[in-house]
Amino acid sequence: MQIKISSGKVIQAEPGQNIYQALKSNGIYLVASCGGKGVCGKCRVKVLEGPVRVESTGKLMKAEVDEHITLACTTFPENDILIEIPEGSKLVIGDKIAIAKSKDLREFLHSVDAGLQPAIRRVYLELTPPSLDDPRSDLDRIKVGLSEKGLDAMRFSHDFMTRLARSVRELNWRFNLDYTEDLYAVAISSPEQVDRYGIAVDIGTTTVVVYLVNYSDGSIVDLGMTYNSQMRHGDDVITRIVYATEGGGLEELRTAVVNDINDILAPMLEKNSISRDDVDSVVISGNTTMAHLFWGFDPTSIREEPYIPTLNAFPQWQAATAGLNILPQAPVYTVPCVGSYVGGDIVAGVLASRMYLKPEIALFMDIGTNGEIAVGNNEWLMTAACSAGPCFEGSGIRHGMRATEGAIESVKIDPKTFEPTLEVIGNAAPAGICGSGMIDAISELFFSGIIDQRGKFMRDLQTDRIVIGDEGPEYILHRGELKEIVLTEVDIENVMRAKAAIYAGISIMLKEVGLSLDVVERIYIAGGFGNYLDIDKAIMIGMLPDLPKDKFSFIGNTSIAGAYLCLLSDKMRAEAEDIASKMTYIELSVSRGFMDEYMSALFLPHTNMELFPTVRDLYKKS
Ligand code: FES
Questions:
Q1: Are residues 201 and 268 located together in one domain of the fold?
Q2: Alpha carbon of 71 to ligand 1 centroid (Å)
């Protein structure tokens, strides 16, 4: 059977394949937050011609079904069909995302007093060339030279040996030999070549960031970012784990992210005239599932009780093992993980925040696709993952989207007229609503008296902004020519569940150590989402604790900052390992008391208004 796409492309659908599967096997990807399970409602396509069998219409509205919109993952062609893929359903992941260096990391490195002590060591050798009178092999000759420098125990990989004969002769037996701390020879280079390159990589569930670093001086040569192509198979770690257990899924996910890194790196190397063989050191930072997928380890046990990863501390393997297009024998260091749902990205974040060096009690929060938190100081550290889910990135929200152009990022509602004023990223026509917009909107709906403390719409308000949709009441944020953008009661419930999970996570962790929120002197908010977050509004809905605003610091993408520090400094690696081993990991899903805390937090801002005095006072006035 053929599926013709209105853009002109024609693909073949195998018997039994739904439209989503057929498109995917032909390299056409749709937004598929739930990984094709018929749950998220994101993979909408319009059937223009031909017979189809629709197994379920899921979250589609009646008006959409009447318009022949269907979910690609629950719709099966019964003969040749013609479809149209709406813009909002197209998954754009190959695009490079523009990012700026939020901070001069080199300055940062010096400020943390780490100094430059990269994992790759260097020794200079000047050897007598072989002759008929001195027929020792190349390797024996090098071993003698190394022995004179006290490096007898050096080991040599097969990849290193394949290049040896030519390299030493080209360099007339005068060369630098780079090697790892545990005495593995990595590369040979000219003594004149001073610059040495490595890459720091943050593998996020949503994005992949690569910094190309000259580690001889700590400068960032170039940087790039793209969406994690694994998103083709779902938005969150759970859908990826499920996909990995399906036939061939693990290898597909592994290659997807490795290709992302290679694709970001290749143009950067070309632009800066750096050979791939000159990149000889890598640090990878990612959550536990991302680290497992990168190395090709089955992540199944991460999501099954008792939630055990295959490993938390990763040996240093070589770039060729991972499939990275750099010097094959380059060592790849993976920032250690703590547990199934607290990974190297959080360890790197705590490392970059420096909270583990100070006596003040600090809270570290990374509200990304999952929502991890850490609390502690220089004496103790505790961490947990809140399972907030990716709703702040648009998943599970009717018109949710990531914080890209067209996303409503800020909402104000006039409490008298109930009319909204919107700010949209890129000043574009609104296409959906992102995490910060949702938090804003819910806070405004609450303070305008449109929703109550349970997030339910008030009845009998005199406004045509509230209508009854297929899922119950909804608030119309934007009336466009083509479509309305709404926030439904179900959307609000989803955001409230996520914010309640975060707040309950914080409460439980502090309770475990017998402390209350007022002892927290600093709150670090990491992750891209933090850049857009309005602290006041996040406090209003009870997502963040009601603490003075000056206690909050946004610290950007700390996963990449921590990876950068580990690339340049042995001391930082040792500290990362120390953090990982020192952190007490709490599995909230089995923690006694979590459910109670969670249920109490399922209100705006909380069932106990005394925990939110600022909000209580404002609410009384409103
Ligand atoms: S509903 Fe089709 S991918 Fe989620």
A1: yes
A2: 7
DSSP string, 523-583: EEEESGGGGT--HHHHHHTTSS----GGGEEEEE-HHHHHHHHHHHBHHHHHHHHHHHHHE
CATH number reported for the structural domain that contains residue 224 in this entry = 3.30.420.480
Query: Closest ligand 1 atom to the C-alpha of 34?
Result: 4
Q: Are residues 202 and 285 in the same domain?
A: yes
Question: Residues 17-74: pLDDT tens digits?
Answer: 999 989 988 878 888 888 888 888 888 899 999 999 999 988 787 778 888 999 999 9
Q: What is the DSSP letter of 421?
A: E
- What residues make up the domain containing 280? 197-297
Asked which of 189, 221, 246 is the last residue of a domain, the reply is 189
Two structure tokens written together for 401: 């989207």
Atom number of ligand 1 nearest to Cα 43: 2
Count structural domains, the chain: 3
CA dist., res. 397 & res. 438, Å (int): 9
Which atom of ligand 1 is found nearest the CA of 41? Answer: 1
Q: Which residues line ligand 1 (CB under 6 A)?
A: 20, 32-34, 36-43, 58, 71, 73
Strands lying side by side in the sheet with 121-126: 121-126, 174-179, 185-189
Only one residue has tokens 């039994």, namely 16
181 and 259 part of one domain: no
Note the pLDDT of residue 583.
Answer: 95
Cα of 394 from ligand 1 centre, angstroms: 14
Residue that is written with structure tokens 């593995």 in the block? 184
Mean pLDDT of the chain: 90
In a domain, 13, yes or no: yes
